[in-house]
Design goal:
441 residues; alpha+beta; 2 domains; 5-stranded antiparallel β-sheet; 3-stranded mixed β-sheet; 18 helices; 55% helix
Length: 441
Amino acid sequence: MERKSQDNIPTSKVQRAAKFAKTGVKLGANYVKHYAKKTMNPNLSRQELDDANASDVYDTLSELKGSALKVAQMMSMSEGMLPSAYSEKFKMAQYTAPPLSFPLVVKTFKQYLGKSPNDIFEQFDKDAMNAASIGQVHKAKIGDKTFAVKIQYPGVAESIDSDLRMVKPFAMQILGLSERDLEIYMKEVGDMLKSETNYNLELERSQKLAKLTKEAVPNAIFPEYYPEYSSERILTMEFLEGMHLKEFLATNPTQEIKNKAAQTLWDFYDYQMHVLKEVHADPHPGNFLMKEDGRVGFIDFGAVKVIPEEYYLQHFSIMEKNILEDDAQLETAFEGLGFLMADDTPQQREFFKGVFKELLSLSMKPFHSDTFYFGDKKYFQDLNEFGERLSKMPELRNSKQARGSQHSLYLNRTYFGLYFLLHELNATVNTDSYWYKMKEK
């Protein structure tokens, strides 16, 4: 189905606030309709309401693009966080959103490179190959070189803080979280988005991380980048051939090939996480290109999480295989990570220690053996069920303070996003981590 392009994006705070307000009115009307029907049929489920609300919220976020749509994209990757209607709708943000019309693309080129795309490239496709939350990608050519040109949507960088303030009520309602719980989340998302909208920074990080990682992960492929065709809002790189995950799986690759791709993904993240301590923190399927032989192309380094050394040591100390059996050591680690608070009552302390111990035993399970089978449906069912229980626990929702560090948001998101990819590949992976290798030296 052909995607309809957008001729304009609301860029001022007033215009964007009006869009959010209009959506709020729509959601209110949806609730009125739902409860009116429920008086006639007390057994009516929330599915129809969730479907209507998810569609209205997504349509607004797609039109506004930027930070608001990025939050939807992130939430869609957290299995168990969202009602299924939202999860399915928001997953669209991983791959596609309505693209900008070509005149707006030309305007951006003239503003940031001083020329139209047709003045720079011998061939420039007017229709975007891909349109997502922050920008869209066009294919271009000069001679026998083919480029992927990423163009940022107008107003995205300037509207981050105001957008996140406006999207917060929707996130609270959809996720069932308190404002306190969302505060740390939104602060970290805002900081990451500010770096993600700076394409000069992305260019620098892309070149650095590609150079360092490809030496350690031979089956990882990275595009060449072109500073002369790039700017603060335009990023030009070599066009990589490859398939997104669904396309790759549709070719029915052998399990050996799928395991090779999965091992490449694991090694890529493991090396960056534990050696470089700078990690590609946007593991949604649209950022990877699979080759028929199991190699993997990595095409987006916009979201890079720099891990502070002190936090790194605290966070990964809980990976130790014996820590779950050592109550005193576990308690100390949880205090350092902000899972336990100094003013917790003994009952609260015992409760939260049990909750986070269960989370730890589940999330770190792949690290506690030399290999791990990510196709295990029971394991992912346990993860999802725990996530659902976690979101409904009154002790967490009514806690005076949000538990955990802001740094954990992108690290946890990265690992769970990676787990999801490996699960889709039904893969068995060598999970012998650099964390253990470095500790043994």
